Amino acid sequence: MTWCSDVTMLMLFYDLVMVGFIAAHLLLTFSAGIYAGIYITQNYTLPRVDDPTELMEKVKEFTDKYRKD
Fold it and tell me: Which residue, 20, 23, 25, 17, is CA-closest to 9?
């Protein structure tokens, strides 16, 4: 193997390690969020979330109310 191919292999290995690290981090974060959501839902009384159309209407009302003239 030449020096150039050694560096290329090292860069490829580094890229694979970084992709693996990022994927593992995202999976861990997603799993923790799912677990926290299930725990909170089972142990606390939460209000229902509004329908998306109602939520958009509330956002429009809020922005119209506080818009600068």
Answer: 17
Q: What is the pLDDT of residues 7-62, one digit of tens each?
A: 788 888 888 899 999 999 999 999 999 999 999 999 999 888 888 899 899 999 99
The count of structural domains within the chain is 1
| Residues 33, 27: Cα–Cα separation, whole Å | 10
Q: Which domain holds residue 44?
A: 3-65
Query: What is the Cα–Cα distance from 7 to 16, expressed in whole angstroms?
Result: 14
The span from the CA of 53 to the CA of 67, in Å, is: 21
DSSP secondary-structure letter at 66?
A: T
